[in-house]
Design a protein that fits this description.
100 residues, alpha+beta, four-stranded antiparallel sheet, 4 strands, globular
């Protein structure tokens, strides 16, 4: 069993092109964490493809062994730095965590 952490963000960009650019920057900041954060077992980050403006723009799916692994990820310096990129562009955030 593992803990799955899913986070989605709405971008603050005024139009699709601006949101695409913001999403690309976020994806570039988060994707390398797979190699940098020891407690991170799997990570994928995706740009929403359908229903632009209605759906959230970017979603992260990350797997950890347990809640302690997620807690270590949350404070890892590389994650904190990537989080600053996200905060510059995110207008809203939703998250959920569950066992798989």
């Amino acid at each position: 069993m593992a803990l799955r952490h899913i986070v989605s963000w709405k971008m603050s960009g005024a139009d699709r092109a601006a949101r695409d650019a913001q999403a690309a920057e976020i994806i570039a900041a988060l994707t390398p964490l797979t190699e940098l954060v020891p407690s991170l077992r799997a990570l994928s980050v995706h740009r929403n493809e359908l229903f632009d403006g209605d759906n959230y723009d970017v979603t992260l799916v990350a797997d950890f062994d347990d809640a302690d692994g997620l807690a270590a990820y949350a404070v890892h310096p590389d994650h904190v730095a990537a989080g600053e990129v996200v905060k510059r562009h995110a207008a809203a955030r939703v998250a959920t965590d569950f066992t798989v």
